[in-house]
Structures are given as C-alpha cells and as structure tokens.
Amino acid sequence: MLKYIIKRLLVSLIVLLGVSILIYTLVRLMPNDYIDNKYREQLMIGTISQDQVDAFKALYGLDDNSFFGIIKGYWNWLTNALQGQLGDSFKYEKPVQEVIVSNMWTSFAIALIATIFQFIIAIPLGISSATHQYSIRDYTVTVLTMIGISLPTYFLAAIVIKIFAVDLGWFPNSGLVDPSATYPATFAGWFAKLGDMIHHLILPIFVSVILSIGSLMRYTRTNMLEVLNADYIRTARAKGLSEKKVIYKHAFRNTLIPLVTILAGILPSLFGGMMITEEVFGINGIGRLAYNALQDGDIPFVMGYNMFLAVLTVIGTLLSDLMYSIVDPRVNLSK
After folding, report:
1. How confident is the model at residue 21 (pLDDT cuts 50, 70, 90)?
2. How many CA atoms lie within 13 A of 39 on its CB side?
3. Contact at 8 Å (CB) between 92 and 286?
4. pLDDT digits (tens, 9 = 90+) for 234-277
5. Which end of the chain has the lower number of beta carbons within 10 A, N or C?
6. pLDDT at residue 335 above 60?
C-alpha cells in the first residue's frame, strides 16, 4: 500500500507540473491582461498615456507575451511556488495564500451542506427508482434527473430568486448576511448572525442540491439495476431472504463500489467553491473571487487557485482509489 501511494504521489507531481504549464500559458495568451482591464477607461479618456500603461505592464511582468517571455514568467512563478510563495494577487492586493485561506471556508460550508443533502436525497431516490423500474416513481425520478442535469445554474438561480425572493419575499436574494443589521459581540448576537446566514444560504444551497442530485440519482439507479440482475442476487432471493435484506445488505453494498469513484470530484468542489452560484447570489466565496480574478487577468491568483484545485483533485483521486480497495477487498493496490 505504501509503495502504491508513493508511486502515485510521484506521478502526481508530473501531472501538477503539466497542469501548471498549461494554465499559465492559457492565462498569458488571454486577449487582455490585468493592466489593460484596469486602465482601459483612463486610457480612452486620456488621463493616462500608453507609455505609462506599458511601464505598469513591465512592473507586473506582463510586458513580454512572446514565447520566451512566457517561459521566463512561468519559471519565475514556478521557482517562487516551490518556495511556498504564490505571489501577491494583482486584484486583491494580498498574498494569494491569504486570499484563498480567508475566503474558502464560506464556499466549503455551502458545498459541504449541499453535498450532504445531495447524497441523502439522491441515493435513496436512485435505489427506489431501480427497485420500482418502469413505475410512476421511476418515471418521476427520471424527470427530476433530466431537470437536474439539463438546467443551467444561472437559469435555475434566476427563477428561484424571482419566485422566492422577489415575488414571495421569503428569502434574501444576495449576500451572506443583512448589511444593515448589527450584531453585538454576545452569544445572542452570534446566534442571531448565524440565523441570518442560514436564511441567506437557503436559496443557494437549494439550487446547488437540485442541480447536483440528478446525475447522482441516475448513477445510483443504473448501478443498482446492474447489481439486481446479478446471479448472486437471484441466489439470495432463492434462499428466502427478505427483499429488504437483499436490496440493502447485498445489492446496495456492491452499488457503493462504483459510487466511491465520485469522491474524486467531491474534495475540490468542497473547497473550490461554485463560481456561477456564488456570483448570482452575490456570495463572496472563493469561487466568485476566482471568477472575478479570471475576468481581470489576475495571473498570480488564477494560478494559485487552479493549482489549489489541482492538488485537491490529486488527493481526492488517491483517496478514491484507497476507499475503492476498502469497499471491494478484491482490489489489490500493492502491485
């Protein structure tokens, strides 16, 4: 097991190197950079000259977009990253590590709650759909699945805001807390602030759950149907076991084997935030910050954020493989 983990980690270093090269090159080849975006209006009205803009570009290391200029810029970023320094964000004017750490926990809380509800709702519905194939229940789950898979995030979020925030006025439509409210530094004030945050997060969590349960329900249903048609399930039924024991003790346990592969994508999504959801609902999570930084060409933050996600993906994939071997003892990772 230890040999396998070390081998995977060494391979992961090569993967991360390739990812960093690709991301840096793509960001540098964007039509506009941070300086162009920041001083575009001033340049148009003449309050700043092109020479001054070029001087700012040289100061930020964005003056040379040639092949060798990109290589030089990437080498400078890589040497600093290996020393644990991801640089200072152009847009947020803070160290990249500080921006990520201070803003990812809001996204983590939203994503964690949404993921818990996703599994609580999707897996039982998928099992119920598979055990009642071609019934009204199965068709209902299939329709919900298609809705969850097909609807764009911004479209569903706009509908939810229109109905529940604008028309009915049940929930706020943006932010994390009420900006006009004040909370004293007491237990009652902390509790009131927590309640306000929960009130603000109901709609974004609802949207995230609706959009995520579709694929998991369908995945669970497909795997459960495959397991229910296996020979050992027919043997278990022939031995007189109850249908409940056949489904939840034998079939569901083997359905978990392919489901653990989903864990590879959960870890980066927990810490990486939901860009569109956070942008629509005006939540200052890490996803929204990354979206705005990408629009403005903030190279240090874009690089730090994407490498952060890449590392989480590598860790998530490794954990998924290890859990796969735990769920299915036939899998041997020692080779």
Report:
1. very high
2. 17
3. no
4. 888 888 878 788 887 777 777 777 677 776 667 777 777 678 88
5. C
6. no
Rounded Cα–Cα distance for residues 30 and 14 (Å): 25
Closest CA to 110 of 269, 320, 315, 298: 269
The whole-angstrom distance between residue 143's C-alpha and the CA centroid of its chain comes to: 25
Given pLDDT bands bounded at 50, 70 and 90, which one contains residue 333?
low
Instruction: Identify the burial level of 227 via C-beta atoms within 10 angstroms of its C-beta, where 0-12 means exposed, 13-18 middle and 19 or more buried.
Output: buried
pTM (2 decimals)? 0.81
The 3-state DSSP class for residue 327 equals helix
Structure-token pair, residue 308: 């952060």
Q: Are 86 and 96 in contact (CB under 8 A)?
A: yes
Asked if residues 16 and 25 have their Cβ atoms less than 8 Å apart, the reply is no
Query: Chain-centre distance of CA 253, in angstroms?
Result: 27
pLDDT in tens, 138-171: 888 888 788 777 888 888 888 999 999 888 888 8
pLDDT in tens, 206-224: 988 888 888 888 888 888 8
Give backbone dihedrals phi and psi of 88, rounded to 5 degrees, phi first.
Answer: -100, 140
Domains of the chain, CATH where assigned: 23-82 (no CATH), 96-327 (1.10.3720.10)
Considering all CA atoms of the chain, what is the largest pairwise distance in Å, rounded to the nearest integer?
A: 86
Neighbours of 7 (CB within 10 A): 11
The region that residue 175 occupies, defined by phi over 0 for left and psi between -120 and 50 for alpha, beta otherwise, is left
Handedness of CA 253, 258, 259, 263 (dihedral sign): positive
CB environment 141-162: b (16+ within 10 A), e (fewer): beebbeebeebebeebbeebbe
Q: What are all long-range contacts of 321-328, with beta carbons under 8 Å and residues at least 24 apart?
A: 321/8, 322/1, 322/5, 323/260, 323/263, 324/257, 324/260, 324/261, 327/256, 327/257, 327/260, 328/257
Looking at per-residue pLDDT, the higher value among 2 and 128 belongs to 128
